[in-house]
Each structure stands twice: as structure tokens, then as C-alpha cells.
Amino acid sequence: RDRDQRRPGPAAAARHVKYAIEPDEPPADGLVRIIRGEVRKVRLADPADPDFLRRARIASKRVRAALHLCRSLMGDKAFRRQNAWWRDQARLVSDQRDALAAIESVRRLVEQLLDPEEARLAGMLAERLAHAAPSHLWLEGAQEGADAAARRLHAALANAPTPDPHALKSRGLDGLADAYVATYARARRALRWAAASGEVERYHDWRKLAKRHALQTRLLRRLAPGLEERVAPARALALKLGGLQDTSVILRALMTLGDPPGGEDGRRR
Question: How far apart are CA 69 and CA 216, in angstroms?
Fold first, then answer.
């Protein structure tokens, strides 16, 4: 009953439009509000929209970042179940994201290349990848096109799990702070492993944790002084690492083409 009395009413909730916990709401209630809001946005989106998969992946990352902050409040069993559900949905459409990101990245590359022949070859590569995109012949494990993946994901969201606010423990800001520090510590370890090994997979792990840290910083920025100025550099780092991931996907696609634009000389260029 105490928790219900502290929960803001509809008018107060309507004012909370940002991806952030507000100072005038209990942290647990703020996290539930944010998670349910992200789910609602994707449920109301049109799966036929070409931008649907990108928006759904963004919402999934935001939900998982909030869930990790919420872990100490909801318990390990509930956290593992809900986090696994969102992780599995993201994995099922990850090939769609990689395909679209690779095509767009090559097209941007065309505008940056000064050598006319290299720009021509890059343009041909973008068209080749776009032509193969429906079947993703150059992506390992890809089985369905973007339209089918969008429809399946949209249908699955009808049963998307969200935390039960009445079952959450009340640990105040301490539990959120501990979870935030834990994410940052993991990201630092991933940075060291990536730098030591130089392996793309390690950088991919670092990218995911850097993105989670950036999102959790946004979630907590209105509760702790100094976090607001940390949002921009954290997001910039995640974007840089995302660009590295896109580059690795392009290289993987190029190496799997049996007849690359310009032949083997074109592949090397």
C-alpha cells in the first residue's frame, strides 16, 4: 500500500516523457514506467515500416539496460527470465540489423572515397549487398528477410515480459548505483581485453557494454549531479564502436562474395 501511495498518478506520469528516472518518483516505479513505455512504443509501431526493426532494436537495448539496473530490485530469477527473452528476440533479428548496417555503411563510404575507381567499386558492392539482402546469402545463419522478421517480432511483443512493480524490492538509489558501477566495471574490463587481443569479437563485447553504460547514464542523469555531462561522450564512444562493428560486417560480406566487384583486385582495393 505504501508503494501504491508513492506511485505518481496519471497526470504526473504523463510529464515523465524522457528516458530517465525522475527525482519525484521512486526509482523502481520509474524503471517500470520506462520499460513499459518502450514496449508500448514498439507495439504501436507498424511492422511494415522500413524503420521498424531499427526502432525495435533500440527499444530492446533500452529495456535491457533498464533491466540490468533493476536486477537487485526484481531478484535474479525474474531478471534472468526477462533479460533472456529480450536477448533472444534481439539475436533473432541481429542478421537483419547487420545486413542493413553494412549496406548503409558502404553507401556512406562511396561519398568519402576520393579515388574514383574505389568509389565505383564501393558503389557496386553496395548494390550487390542490397540485391542479396532478402536472403542474406553473405550472412552466416540468416534465414529470413526483413519483412518476415519484423512481423514475427511485432507478434512476439504481445507477450513481452515486464517487471511487476508490486513484486519489486525497495532498495532506493543504492541498488541502482551498485548496478551502474557494475556495468561500468565490466565495460572497463572489456576495453582491456579488446586492446590486449585486438580481436573484433572482443571489441564487439566492449561495444555492447559501452552502449549499456551510455543508456544507464541517461536513465540516472536526473538523479545524480555530473551524469548529464557524461551522456554525450558515452554515446559517442558507443557510436564509434558501432562503426567498427559495421566495418567488420562489411569485410565479412566482401570476403564471402565469390565474384566481388572488380574481381580479386577489386576485393583488395
Answer: 7
Instruction: Encode 22-40: b = buried (16+ Cβ within 10 Å), e = exposed.
Output: beebbbbbbbbbbbebbbe
Confirm if 191 and 206 have CB atoms less than 8 A apart.
Answer: yes
Tens-place pLDDT, residues 196-225: 998 888 998 999 999 999 999 999 999 988
Which residues make Cβ contacts (< 8 Å) with residue 53, sequence separation at least 6? 93, 96, 97, 100, 146, 149, 150, 153
What letter would DSSP give residue 165? G
For residue 3, is pLDDT > 50? no
**187 Cβ contact partners less than 8 Å away, ≥ 6 residues apart:** 206, 209, 210, 212, 213
Cell of 135: 536472403
**At how many degrees (to 10) do helices 200-220 and 52-74 cross?**
70
Burial of 131 (0-12, 13-18, 19+ CB in 10 A): exposed
Element (H, E) at 241: helix 228-256
Task: Answer whether 222's CB lies under 8 Å from 196's CB.
Answer: no
1, exposed or middle or buried, with CB in 10 Å at 0-12, 13-18, 19+? exposed
Q: Structure pTM? A: 0.81
Determine contact, residues 153/92, Cβ cutoff 8 Å.
yes
